[in-house]
Amino acid sequence: MSAPLIEVEHLTMRFGGLIAVDDVTFSARPREITAIIGPNGAGKTTVFNCITGFYKPTAGRLTLRADREYLLERMLGHEIGQKAKVARTFQNIRLFPGMTVLENLMVAQHNKLMLASGMTVFGLFGLKSYRDAETAAIEVARRWLERINLVADADRPAGELPYGAQRRLEIARAMCTEPRLLCLDEPAAGLNPRESAELNELLISIRDGDGIGVLLIEHDMSVVMQISDHVVVLDYGRKIAEGPPADVQRDPAVIRAYLGTDEGDPDA
Amino acid sequence: MAYFTQQLINAITLGAIYGLIAIGYTMVYGIIGMINFAHGEVFMIGAFISLIGFMICAMLGIGSGAVAIILVLLVAMTFTAIYGWAIERTAYRPLRGSFKLAPLISAIGVSILLQNYVQLAQGARPKPGGHVVEGGFNLFSADGFDVRVTWLQIVIVVVTVVLMAGFSWLIAATPLGRQQRACEQDMKMASLLGVNVDRTISLTFVMGAALAAVAGAMFLMYYGIIDFFIGFLAGIKAFTAAVLGGIGSLPGAMLGGLLIGLIEVFWAGYFSSEYKDVAVFAILVLVLIFRPTGLLGKPEIEKV
Amino acid sequence: MGPRLQHYLKDAGLTALVAAGLAFFIVGFRTYDIGKGLTFDYQFVDLGIAVVAIFFGRLGLSLAADGHDWPALVLGAALGAVGASPIKLPSTFLHWFVGLAGLLVVLRTIWPWANRGLAAARHSPRGVPVGQAIAKWLGAGLLAVAVVMPMTPLADQKTMDLAVLILTYVMLGWGLNIVVGLAGLLDLGYVAFYAVGAYSYALLSTQFGMSFWSVLPLAGMMAASFGLLLGFPVLRLRGDYLAIVTLGFGEIIRLVLLNWVDLSNGPAGIGSIPGPTLFGAVFAETAPEGSQTFAEMMGIPFSGNQRLIFLYYIILALALVTNFFTQRIRRLPVGRAWEALREDETACKALGINPTNTKLTAFAVGAMFAGFAGSFFAAKQRFISPESFTFIESAIILAIVVLGGMGSQIGVVLAAVLLIGLPEWFRDLGAYRMVAFGLAMVLIMVFRPRGLIAHREPSVRLHPARRAPVHRKGLA
Rounded CA gap, C449 and C444, in Å? Predict the structure, then answer.
C-alpha cells in the first residue's frame, strides 16, 4: 500500500454555534478513489471546502504529501490549486458559461500558460515559445475532449451544453490543471443511468490511467460501491465509520445513520 | 467646550437627515441586495416637492408653523413615494435574474435621468426657500461664545426620532414588517409561503422614498437652498452612513447617519471645510475595505 | 378584443395616473427667480397633454404587445401626426414628446415583423453568420473612413472637433471595456485615471518643459500605478461594493485636485499647456524661439485645421493601439482569466488562478489607457481643471460601454457615435442629452442587457470557424 496523499487530522469547522465538522480524521491515497458519504448535512461539502481553501478550518491539520509537504490550512484559496495541485468540482456546476468549452479547458491551464507567455509580455509580441505552449495546451484540451466525448462541441459556449456534458466538462476542466488530488462533489447527481455508467468509467480511467488520488462525495450508493476503494462515512459532522466499501456497508453505525434510529431523521 | 457643544448640536441635526436617507438604502439592500443608486435623487425630488409645497402653502395663506410643515411633509411623502414605486417597477423589477451588475447600472441610469429631468423642469439655478421655522434660543454662553439651538433643529430631531420609532415598530410588529423580514431571509421561501414578494419589495421602495422625502424637506428647511444636484453628495453620504452602520441593519443606518453627521461637522469645524467630503469618502472606502459588514451588520458566509 | 379592451384602458389609465402623480409638482409648477425670491408658474396644460399622450401611448403599446397590429399602428400614426402637425401645442418639447410616443408605438408594432425578417436573413447561403460578417466588414469600413476622413472636404473645423471628441470617447470606452466588459469589474471612478494622465502631462510640460511624446508613456505608467495603488486594497470586494469604492476614489481624486492648490492650481486649473509636436514642429501660426512651425517645415501655408487634423491622427492612433492591445490580450492567458473571473470567480480560485492579481492587471491596464487619453486631452484642450473630471464623465464612459455591449469593441464605437456624436450634431437637443443617456442605460439593461452588439468571438477555436454564431449567454 502506498503512502497517503492527503492526511486530514482532527478537522473541525464551526459556523457561529454550529459545528459542521467535528474532529474528523482520515486519509486518502494516490491511485485510489476515496468516497466520503453520509446523510444530508453531514458536513461532506464542508470538508471539501476546507481542503480546497474556501473555508479556513477552525482547528485541525490538512497535509498533502507530494514533492514536499503542503499544509493546506495555511494556504490561500488559489494557492491550493496552483501549488499543492488540488482540483475540485462543485455540487452545482460552476463552469464559465459564456466561454466556449475549449476556453474553459484553456483557463484551467492558466498558470502553466501564464509562465509560458512570460507573464503576458512574450505573448503580446507573439514569441514562438508562447505559441508552442499554446498549441500544446490546446492539444491537452483536445485529448480531454476526446475522453469526455465533446470534441464536436469544443467551440460552443459551455452554458449551452446539456447537463450531463457540463458535469463531464467540469471534471475535464479540473483535470486540465494536472492535479495530484481531484475532489468531486456529487458528480453523478442528476445523471441518467447511462451517463452515470460513463462517469464511472471516466473516474476509473482517471484513477488508473492518470494515477492521481480522487476524493468523491456521492449520494448514489451504487456508484460508491462500484468504484470506490475506500469509504469514509460522516454523520452530523463526525466520522462514524471508515474502511473498504463492503465493510462499511455492513457497519451497524452506518446503517443506523442512513436508515435512522427511533429519534433519527428517517428520510436522510 | 461651548464651540464643541455647538458643533455637536449641528452634527446631530445633520446626522438625523442622513439617517433618514440611509434607511432607504439599507432596507432596499436588505431585501433585494442592490445598491439603489438613485435613492439620492429621490431625496432631491422630495426636497423639490417640499419647496413647491411650502410656496403653495404660503400662497394659500398657511404662512408658517406646524400646519404648513405637517401638510408639506404629508404631500412630499406621498408624491415622492410614487417615484420610489415607479422606479422599482420600471427600472429594477424587470432585472431580477439578469446579471449581477445590471440593477446597479440601471440605477445609475435612473439617477442621471432624474437629475437632468429636474434640471430641465425646474432650471439649474439654486432655489432658495423653506424658511418656515425661524428663531431659536441660547442654551448657554461660555468663553464669549453663545451656544444656540434653533427651533428648526428641534423640529428636525423630533420628527426624525418620531419617524424612526414608528418605523421600527412597523418593521418589528406589523404583518408588513414580518413579510419584509421574511423576504430578506429567503425570497423564494417567503413566496412559497404566500408572501406577495413583488408587493413587499414595492412597499419597501415606497417607504424608503417617503423617508427620503422627509429628509429632503428638512434639508430644504435647514439649508434654505436646494438645487438639482444635492442628491448626489447627500446620497453618497447617506450610503456611507448605511455601510458604516452595517448595511441591512435599521439601527445601523441611524447610528451611521449620526456618525457621518458628527464626522462631517467636526472635520469642518476643527480641520478644514474643503476636505470634509474627502473625509466622508475616505471613511466609505476604509469601512468597505476593512469592515464591509459595518458596525452592526451580520457577517455573510460565502456559499460554495 | 372586447373584454380585453377594458383591461387595456384600465392599464393605460393607471399608467397615465402614475405619470400625472410623478410630474404633478415637478412639471406642473415651474419655479423661477424674481430677484427677491422665488415664484412659480403653472404648466398644467402642458402636463395634461403629456399625460394624455402617455395614456394613448401605453394603450398602443399594450395593443401591439398582444398582436393587435392595426389598431396599434393607427394609434401610433395618430400620435405621430399630432406631434408633427402644425397644431400649436404649448411647447416644442411637447411636439417632440407626442411625436416620439407615436414613433415608439409604431416601432413596437413592427418590431416582431422586423425581427422575423432579420432572423431569416441572419444566415447567408454559405452558412456564414451574417452578424459576424457584418461586424468584420463594419470594422474595416469604419477604419477606412476614419483614416481617409480628414483628407476629404468634409473635414471642416466643426467636424474635426467632433471627430476628435468622439475618438477620445472611443478610446476611453475601449479602455474601460477591458475593466468592465472583459474582467467584469464595475469601475465608477474611471475618470480619475483620465485626470491623473491629464494632470501628469499638464504639470510635467508646464513645470519642466517636457514634450508630449516623452510624457505620454509616463502618464500611462502614472495612471497605471494609481490603478494598482487603488486597486490593491479594494479588488477583493464584491462587485457592487467595488463600484461604490471606485466612485469614492474618483471623487477623492477630484476633490484633492480641487483643493490642493499648490499642486494643481485648484479650481482655476492649469492653462497654456503646450500642444503635441511633430518631429519638433509646432502647430501654431508662429513658432517659439529655436523651433519651426509645421507649415514652415512642410512649406505650405498655415491653417488652423492642420493642428486639428494632427490631433485627430494622434487620437486615432492611440485608440487603435488600445483596440489592438485588447484584441491581442483577449487571446492570451491573462485575458482569458479576466473573462473567466467575470463569469465565475469561485471557479477561478478552484483552478488556482489568483483573482486579486488578475483583477489588478485588468484595473491597471484599463487605467493606463485612461492615462494616455488624459494626457492627450490636456494637450488638445491646453487647459484643464477639475471640472472636466466629475462623476458624470465616468458615467458617460460607462454608458458607452454598456450601450455598445460589454466586451464588444465595435459596439463601443457605435455607442460613442450615438451618445457623443448625435447630441453634438443636434445642438438643440443638448439639454435633453443627459436625460436620454440615463434613459438609454435603463432601457438597455431592461431590454438588451448584452448591448447593441452581443456577439462574442471565442478567443481560441478548435475547429476553424464557419459554424453557427456563438452568442454570449450572460455576464453573471
Answer: 6
Quick check: B201 pLDDT over 50?
A: yes
pLDDT at position A266, please? 43
Architecture, CATH, for domain B2-126+135-290: Orthogonal Bundle (1.10)
The model's pLDDT over A99-133, given as tens digits with 9 standing for 90+, comes to 999 999 999 998 888 877 767 666 677 777 788 88
Q: C122: helix, coil or strand?
A: coil
**How many contacts does A have with C, using Cβ atoms within 8 A?**
144
Residue B302: how many CB atoms within 10 A of its CB? 9
C386 in Cβ contact with C251 (< 8 Å): no
Chain A neighbors of C334, CB-CB under 8 A: 114, 117, 119-120, 123
pLDDT tens-place string over residues B50-83: 999 999 988 888 766 788 899 999 999 999 999 9
Q: What is chain C's alpha carbon radius of gyration, rounded to the nearest angstrom?
A: 26
- Cβ–Cβ gap A49/B304 under 8 Å: yes
d(CA A191, CA C361): 39
**C-alpha cell read off for A180:** 495530484
Select the residue from A79, A88, A91, A114 to test the C interface by mutation, using most C Cβ atoms within 10 A.
A114
Task: Tell me the three-class secondary structure of chain B, residue by residue.
Answer: CHHHHHHHHHHHHHHHHHHHHHHHHHHHHHHHCCCCCCHHHHHHHHHHHHHHHHHHHHHHCCCCCHHHHHHHHHHHHHHHHHHHHHHHHHHHHHHCCCCCCHHHHHHHHHHHHHHHHHHHHHCCCCEECCCCCCCEEEEEEECCEEEEEEHHHHHHHHHHHHHHHHHHHHHHHCHHHHHHHHHHHCHHHHHHCCCCHHHHHHHHHHHHHHHHHHHHHHHHHHHCEECCCHHHHHHHHHHHHHHHHCCCCHHHHHHHHHHHHHHHHHHHHHCCCCCHHHHHHHHHHHHHHHCCCCCCCCCCCCCC
Which residues, listed in sequence order, are joined to residue A215 by a DSSP beta bridge? A34, A183
Please report, for chain A, the start and end positions of each structural domain, with discontinuous segments joined by +: 1-85+179-268, 96-177
CATH topology of domain A1-85+179-268: Rossmann fold (3.40.50)
Residue-wise pLDDT tens digits, C217-246:
999 999 999 999 888 888 888 778 888 888
Show the cell assigned to A263.
429519534
CA distances from C156 to C141, C149, C161, C312, C430 (A): 21, 10, 9, 12, 21
pLDDT digits (tens, 9 = 90+) for C372-427: 999 999 999 889 999 999 888 898 899 888 888 777 888 889 888 888 877 766 65
Beta carbons of C350 and A90 less than 8 Å apart? yes
Query: What integer pLDDT is reported at residue B258 of this predicted model?
Result: 93
Topology of domain C134-430, per CATH? ABC transporter involved in vitamin B12 uptake, BtuC (1.10.3470)
Question: What interface predicted TM-score (ipTM) does this complex get?
Answer: 0.88
Q: Do A45 and B302 touch (CB under 8 A)?
A: no
Query: C-alpha dihedral over A165, A168, A173, A179, to 10 degrees?
Result: 180
- Residue A214's beta-bridge partner residues? A33, A182
- Yes or no, beta carbons of A90 and B304 under 8 Å apart: yes
- Sign, CA dihedral C134-C139-C140-C146, equals positive
Task: Report the pLDDT averaged over residues C20-48.
Answer: 87
Whether A229 contacts A33, CB under 8 Å:
yes
Contacts of B301 in chain A (CB under 8 A): 15
Looking at beta carbons, which residues of chain C come within 8 Å of B268? none
Q: Is the pLDDT of residue B202 over 50?
A: yes
Work out the percent of chain C whose per-residue pLDDT is above 90. Answer: 25
pTM for the structure as a whole: 0.85
Query: C352 and A54: CB-CB below 8 Å?
Result: no
Q: Where are the domains of chain C?
A: 2-117, 134-430
Angle between helices B66-87 and B39-60 (to 10 degrees): 140
